[in-house]
Specification:
Helix content is 34%, strand content 22%. It is an alpha/beta fold. A hairpin with a 2-residue loop joins strand 1 and strand 2. The protein is globular. It starts with a strand and ends with a strand. The chain binds zinc ion. Zinc ion binds next to loops.
């Protein structure tokens, strides 16, 4: 048992002085309060926050940095042409490369203050194989990097709605729902129960027929696991779904699945206000990936989501840039630009830091089904510390303690993150 005291700590939605945090042997938080110890482990000139929770990542897509950004003749100008580029990258992947890319992405996340990642993992096989060789590489990379992992194991059966898989898409394939459950069970047996867990995932309605989606979701609920799915990122997905099912993806899911807090719909960029309201009323979550959605020119998600921010989470998705404060800023600023008004994700006291931080921590933990995202008894001792002497925070005379969090989120990049801890252990 150790007692930790930083100069400031994010406690009950604001930064406070003198708060001590007890860290138990099992890597969770014990007591939190003042005067627990006269000789705590001190972190002077640092502010302690819960670590960020990244609810949606495809680690291997980091390989596309700089590659899928040439426009004109060799065009990469839409999501769909970007997807072709991504498929070309997939064709070159082997186990070592997946391991390396995952490790690099996870280390970069830790440096950005992210202590938990939900890895939405769909590149399962070597070329010409159905052996799920890549799965273990992702799990090992997370363990070596030291990040907490929720492996969102993805079922992928069709190339687009009701179309067979072709080319590099075969690397993603689960040939039957039985095979998907068997592979998921095998993966589960190899996870470290202290820092790793499993979610059951249908990639999207483009990639999984609705009957199989129903089965995966039902099993996730029965086993107490989270269920994630890409939903309505692109208008074409909605059109394909309307043509085949005569329903939009979200309307179909609302109709066929008994949705609840175990479910996270990723993106919802083109969802109707009416469907979104119904989705949120079930207790389900929405994960937004502002940097990737901007890079892929997906669109801006509906501002009505701001009203349900405790059901929102953030993801680094394509990992073309890994900076969680930037995800928070873009979430807020895209809506400001559209609405021509300031202050979208505002709390009762009018500040934006509490809700943006809540989305980046508690919201992610809720979406991934982990007990974390808060400095509170019983939660994982996963932290980031902010360097109070970081260049971007110096010279701010007159800034109150509770404004430092806002200065961090709006004025700093991930370089202001000094240290991270997972399960109470500081990571180099
Ligand atoms: Zn995604």
């Amino acid at each position: 048992v150790r007692i930790l005291e930083a100069e400031l700590a994010w406690f009950r939605g604001k930064l406070e002085r003198g708060v001590q945090v007890e860290i138990l042997e099992d890597g969770t938080i014990g007591r939190v309060g003042r005067g627990l110890s006269s000789t705590p482990e001190r972190r002077p000139r640092e502010a302690l926050f819960p670590g960020f929770v990244n609810a949606h990542s495809h680690a291997f897509q980091r390989v596309l940095r700089g590659k899928a950004e040439r426009y004109g003749e060799a065009t990469t100008s839409t999501f769909w042409s970007w997807r072709e580029e991504m498929y070309r990258a997939v064709a070159d992947l082997d186990v070592e490369k997946v391991h390396e890319l995952s490790f690099l992405a996870f280390r970069e996340m830790l440096r950005s203050g992210i202590t938990t990642v939900g890895e939405f993992h769909y590149v399962h096989h070597l070329a010409g194989s159905f052996g799920f060789e890549m799965d273990q590489a992702v799990v090992e990379a997370a363990r070596e990097a030291g990040i907490r992992l929720v492996l969102l194991n993805v079922c992928y059966m069709t190339g687009d709605v009701a179309r067979p898989l072709e080319g590099p898409q075969l690397r993603f394939q689960t040939r039957s729902i039985e095979e998907f459950f068997r592979a998921s069970d095998e993966l589960l047996a190899r996870l470290d129960p202290l820092t790793q867990s499993l979610g059951l995932v249908a990639h999207s309605l483009r990639a999984v027929p609705i009957e199989a989606v129903v089965e995966i979701h039902r099993r996730a609920r029965r086993e107490g696991r989270v269920f994630h799915m890409h939903v309505e990122e692109q208008k074409k997905e909605i059109e394909q779904c309307l043509a085949h099912y005569a329903r939009t993806p979200l309307a179909l899911l609302l109709d066929r699945l008994d949705l609840g807090p175990e479910t996270t719909a990723v993106h919802c960029t083109h969802s109707s206000e009416e469907d979104l309201k119904k989705l949120l009323a079930t207790g389900a979550n929405v994960c937004l990936c502002p940097l990737t959605e901007a890079n892929l020119a997906d669109g801006i998600p509906p501002v009505s989501l701001a009203g349900a921010s405790h059901q929102l989470s953030l993801g680094t998705d394509s990992n073309l840039r890994i900076d969680f404060t930037e995800e928070m800023r873009l979430l807020e600023y895209a809506q400001r630009l559209r609405e021509e008004r300031r202050g979208i994700f505002t709390a009762e006291d009018g500040s934006v830091s509490a809700r943006l931080l809540g989305i980046a921590t508690e919201g992610g933990a809720r979406s991934l089904g982990v007990k974390g995202g808060r400095i509170e008894t019983g939660h994982a001792a996963d932290f980031l510390t902010l360097d109070l002497d970081a260049p971007c925070l110096t010279g701010l005379e007159g800034v109150a303690d509770d404004e430092i969090a806002t200065a961090f989120l709006l004025g700093a990049g991930d370089r202001a993150v000094a240290h991270v801890a997972v399960g109470g252990a500081w990571i180099d």
